[in-house]
Every structure is written in C-alpha cells, then in structure tokens.
Amino acid sequence: MTPTITAFERSPDSGKGLARDMRVRWALEEVGQPYDVRLLSFKAMKEPAHLALHPFGQIPTYEEGDLALFESGAIVFHIAERHAGLLPDDVNARARAITWMFAALSTMEPPVIDLAFARLLERDEAWYEQRLPVVEERVRKRLSELSGRLGDAEWLDGPFSAGDLMMASVLLRLKASGLLDQYPNLSAYVARGEARPAYRRAFEAQLAVFTAASRT
Q: Which residue range is the domain that position 76 belongs to?
C-alpha cells in the first residue's frame, strides 16, 4: 500500500528543504518506497480532520492503511524498520544508529531551533542583542562536540543510516547562520548528505510544491 504524507501547501522555508516533511521524503526515497503527498494550508492544519492525525496541528503525518503516525522522527524510524537500507542488520550497529536518531532530535535540534526562533521572532526585542550570543554559544558547544566525534569519518557510525539522515536534516538548518562553516568536517558531512541521489529527489519534490504555490 502506498503511504500518504502531509506537507505544507505553502512552505514557510521558501523551498529550502527545511520543512520536516523533507526528512520523511528523504527516508522514503532512500528505501525506494513510492508515496503520495496531501498538501495542507495553515488553516487546514488546525481543523478537526488533521488534528485527528496530528494532535498538535503540524506536519508531517504518515498514513498507511489503518496506521497513522505523526512526528518526523517516529515516521522515519517506522520507515527504517519496515524497509532495508536505513538501519544496519547487526544488532549493535542498529542500536547505535537509532541512538544517533535520538541525539539529532533531542540533543542537537533544540538549540538549533532556539537560534532560528531568536533570529526570526525576537529580533525586535530589547534584550535580543544580549540573548543572541548566549543562544549561539549553546549551538557552538553542540557543534564542537559533534565535530569531535565525527572527526574525519564519512558518516557517524559506519555506513549511512537513519541516524545520519536525521542529523544532517537538523544541521541543514544552520547553513544560513554561518555557524556550520566554523566546523569544516560538519559542513562536508552535510554536503555529503545533500549529494545523495535520494536527498536530491526529495528536495526537488518539495521545491516543486513551493514553486507551484508561488505561481498561484
């Protein structure tokens, strides 16, 4: 059965591949699973039909038969569990890949999102100039730790996995900030993720939605 995911009708990221449906698209492309997309307006995201799928009124969601999921991490994990290609066969390597998925979402993403919100929503606040360096330093701390762990390896733990997919997706949010450029091995790591054919297909699919919406 072909799964259906939800995505923004008009993405606020202007087609940069930062909306969280991108992670799910990428995972589906990596495993070669066709999928359908149901586009939603911001209004539709808060209506009962969508809230029944996602209680917080966000995207993405994932529907396959009588299974409905929300949260990008949970969806990517489900895809990786159901299809070969995103989790190693070795039990211990598999557990480590899953650990990196959690690290991306629980340890790396919170300060990255905090920085994005500060720059986007708090710029006009009187305390912005004092707060921004503190937020940036939290991000640098995590980047420094991750950079030290990655070293000169191609991926976080052996071959590319769902852990790399989630981590690269989080780090992509920092490209515009300039902070990622301070860690050449992490910049190269993200570039390797972007160069994967599955990523390019997912990116082009998401970009096509934004381009079409911009013409209307």
A: 4-85+198-214
Looking at residue 49, its pLDDT comes to: 97
Residues 206 and 111 in one domain: no
The answer to whether 135 and 114 have CB atoms below 8 angstroms apart is yes
- Per residue in 72-102, pLDDT (tens digit) is 999 999 999 999 999 999 999 999 999 999 9
Cα separation, 190 vs 171, whole angstroms: 7
The domain that holds 100 is classified in CATH as: 1.20.1050.10
Query: pLDDT confidence of 113, banded at 50, 70, 90?
Result: very high
105, 185: one domain: yes
User: Which residues, 6 or more positions from 163, have their beta carbon under 8 angstroms from its beta carbon?
Assistant: 96, 97, 98, 99, 100, 101, 103, 104, 156, 157
The total of structural domains in the chain comes to 2
What pLDDT does 122 receive?
77
| Residue 120 CB-half CA count within 13 A | 11
